[in-house]
Amino acid sequence: DSKFDVVIVGGGSAGIATAASILKRNAKVTIAIVDPAQDHYYQPGWTLVGAGVFKPEQTRRAEADVMPHGVTWLQVAATGFDPDRNRVELADGRTIAYQVLVAAPGLRLAWEKIAGLEDALGRGGVTSNYRYDLAPYTHRLVQQMKAGRALFSQPPMPIKCAGAPQKAMYLSCDLWRDAGVLPKIDVEFHNAGAVLFGVATYVPALMEYISAYGIDMRLESNLVAVDGQRRIATFVQTKDGATETVEREFDMLHVVPAQVSHDCVAKSPLAAASGFIDVDEATLRHKRYANVFGLGDGAGTSNAKTAAAVRQQAPVVAVNVLAALEGREPVADYDGYGSCPLTVERGKIVLAEFGYGGKLLPTFPAWLVNGTRPTRAAWFLKERMLPPLYWHAMLKGHELLASPHRIGRAA
Ligand code: FAD
């Protein structure tokens, strides 16, 4: 079977950014990227597609067009990992060998965990910004709705971009407010978690919007079933240690599914108990296999699963991979940075930026962007700056807004 210096499984945000960062430092490294996908998505844009701000096509490129120059792309799924023999198994029956492996397959949206959901999605008022093809439907539903009940759900953690379920809700409410119909719409937020947002610093600003939009917030309320025909959503509500089942009729339902590790990882020696890739939180090196690294949504680290996190992780993994190729120990550390731009209304964002343990890690000085308050500067960043930064810098190995000081051990 063929052998490469580096095999990267997954050509999403993390896989492409890491390959580009490695090649920027050393163009001679031979890299194979394994990914069956036809297209590459800028998923952070889907929130704005759901709000009618972006066209879906702005968030998609052909996978071939984002492949870094010099990489061998194997357009096939990885089906198994054999880290004891330095090999990856592929869906077409081949295996490929590596010196160093980077596992970056993202995570799997487990739609099937909510009974009836797969049949209901995409019609009868049931939508989700977590799918490219459905985000435009969110916008259509919001535009059509003049009265009734709108439900927004958030599953148990971990999920990618933990703020996205409520972002969809705030932007919908903002459109209804402008259309003058918000007073006639009952908006409910059913969050399986016990808090509105995991880092307490940002909660007061968000609560102001919950109250201004008149949202009925229900914590520890987990969506378990959807009856698309009768338009009834079933939740399991936890209260004082007891649980009860609550049925809610709806006119519109925005769902975010539970999110799990891909089977090919979860059933492999790479998995932690959670099913995600068992890497060290700082070096992103596998805890048991010294020539394996993991990053992105598939990693079992405790950071916010975001493209912003990947922006910081990719250069760290790149320098640590190069060190590993030379038989050296990791030289760089990741601090857990992740970012969640909470779109509280069109034109304003609460820019949550934090690392491991909820430590605040603002990129900008507070006079420019005060992350604990809604700001126009943060919206400008999200709408105008971050997409080009993603396509033209992050995916090309130009490490803008990926602060060198985060490469802790003198790269
Ligand atoms: P992905 O980009 O999902 O890529 C995974 C890749 O692996 C895919 O190309 C897939 O085809 C491939 N793959 C899967 N299985 C296999 C296999 N078996 N073999 C080979 N290849 C495989 N982040 C932010 O920073 N800010 C935001 O505002 C934001 N908002 C978001 C809003 C929504 C609605 C969503 C869905 C996400 C949002 N994110 C946001 C999160 C961000 O998109 C992800 O964190 C990021 O894409 C993670 O990168 P990744 O490479 O790990 O996974």
From TrEMBL:
The lineage of its organism: Bacteria, Pseudomonadati, Pseudomonadota, Alphaproteobacteria, Sphingomonadales. One of its GO terms (biological process) is sulfide oxidation, using sulfide:quinone oxidoreductase. GO terms for molecular function: FAD binding; hydrolase activity; quinone binding; sulfide:quinone oxidoreductase activity. Its cofactor is FAD. The chain holds residues 141 to 551 of 551 of the full protein. Residues 4-119 form the FAD/NAD(P)-binding domain. Keywords: FAD, Flavoprotein, Oxidoreductase, Quinone, Transit peptide. This is NAD(FAD)-dependent dehydrogenase. It comes from Novosphingobium lindaniclasticum LE124.
